[in-house]
Design a protein that fits this description.
Blueprint: H1 2-14, H2 27-35, E1 59-70, E2 90-93, H3 99-110, E3 117-121, H4 125-135, E4 139-142, H5 143-153, E5 155-157, E6 166-170
Parallel strand pairs: 2-3
Antiparallel strand pairs: 1-4, 1-5, 1-6
């Protein structure tokens, strides 16, 4: 949503009469819409479902994921936080079948740590952001999305060192 919102802002300023219909769905469903010519393009975080014979996919960028909390959360005032310290914190986590959700679970697994206490697992990034900003939860966000939304939501990146896997965004 971050890159789409920024793109719409730039395009609509340049072409003020253009209209957009944004469809929010998984890559497989968006590919079906593209095949049936209901949409002209889509942005996804996973190119595995694209048939290379039928479509051209262009990698736009790689997104590092970061752990975030409310600006007033006690962990945001520290210089460094160990991953193990996040295990017992309340998390608003993306579901396990999403790229971000798999990433979070993989990070803890590779460090031989139990999964964090997931109190909420949801596809809704709006709900996750709300819980972080108002109820003391932790979540992960793509760094560019955090940079766009962080100030408005009063959230901060936690000073925790996460491994380097990234979310590849394709067009």
């Amino acid at each position: 949503a971050g890159v789409v919102g920024v793109a719409i802002g730039h395009i609509s300023r340049r072409y003020p009469r253009i209209t957009f219909e944004v469809v929010s769905a998984g890559a497989a469903e968006l590919q079906r819409h593209l095949e049936s010519r209901n949409i002209e393009l889509f942005v996804a975080t996973n190119q595995e479902t694209l048939g290379e014979d039928d479509f051209a996919a262009e990698i736009l960028y790689d997104d590092p994921l970061i752990a975030v909390a409310d600006a007033h959360h006690p962990l945001t005032r520290r210089r460094s936080v160990e991953l193990a310290e996040l295990v017992h914190e309340p998390w608003a986590m993306p579901p396990a079948n999403t790229i971000s959700g798999r990433y979070v679970r993989e990070v803890f697994h590779t460090q031989r740590l139990p999964l964090p206490t997931t109190i909420v697992s949801t596809y809704s990034s709006v709900l996750r952001h709300h819980l972080v900003a108002t109820a003391g939860f932790i979540t992960v966000l793509p760094k560019p999305l955090f940079e766009i939304m962080g100030k408005g939501l009063s959230i901060r990146a936690l000073p925790v060192d996460l491994p380097t896997p990234r979310r590849t965004v394709v067009l």
